[in-house]
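Troubleshooting log. The previous structure file for this entry was overwritten by mistake, so regenerating from the original sequence record. Sequence copied from the archived sheet and checked twice against the printout by T.R.
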Amino acid sequence: MNYFLVFQNKSYNEERKGGFLWAPQRNHLGQTFHHWTDMRNIKKGDIIFSSYGGQMLSVLVAKEDCIEHEKPVDLDGLDLWEKDGFMVNAEYIDLSVPIVYKDYMNSILALQGEKYAPFNKVGRGNTGYVFRVSTELANFLFEIIEQRNGYSIDIFKSDETSDKQIIEKIEEDVGNYSVVLDKTDQDTIIKARIGQSLFKKALLNLESKCKICGVNDTRFLIASHIKPWSTSNNEERLDVNNGLLLCPNHDSLFDRGFISFEDDGYILVSSILDEKIRIFMNINENIRIDLSKDQREFMKWHREEKFKN
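Regenerated output below.
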């Protein structure tokens, strides 16, 4: 995986709306520049940090390798460049809290490397479009994003790369158990943990906060099955409609049947919980969440089989 930074001061809104990056191949004099031709180095799954007005508003994930492509119609109104160019289709993941680059410039300058770096020695963006980002700088920017927005690096990694890393890490962890397990037990544990990890990853791609209270630190979010793993078939276990992202408090209540939800999304609170516990656990009967049609089917099971009414 490679990392890049793109300066979009002239085209951010148009490119974000269209879900792409685009740069000309040459200017009107026939000249070309590395900050345009480096577009060809962007491959599927690569990550691009945006810069618009000195801020990182979005992080982009390349959906496919760079291709040669005429200037998209979305950019016709700008009338700035020649027709022939390079294009990357990308997913724009917007940050709820923008990152101001100058606030971290000393660290950025120390980590960015020397050749084709995005910022000059005084901390201003170099003239151009796409610039290479070192792994060290990318990791630093991911740390800032997680601190300010609660988004972990896994949010931005392609499914193929992230899934492979999840599987490898789980296999390594199980192999290091202090208790000796036979092959059958190891395989069972590995399959269960892989399934749960991929299930959480899929839910995070949809909504990276607690469904009830809005806590958005992914370190503390739990992928809670509406219909439990133990009673679900293989398809239901990985179906994102059979899940809610919850903080530990609300996961505990939901998993043990002390709360559930009506079809219209309004919370059901077990009469077993007294007022003191309700206040302490941050629940009240005015809470309402959005449920898809498929989620309502799973929630019906939860109300009938799990909820302690």
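Confidence is low (pLDDT under 50) at residues 177-181, 185-195. Archived copy saved in two places this time.
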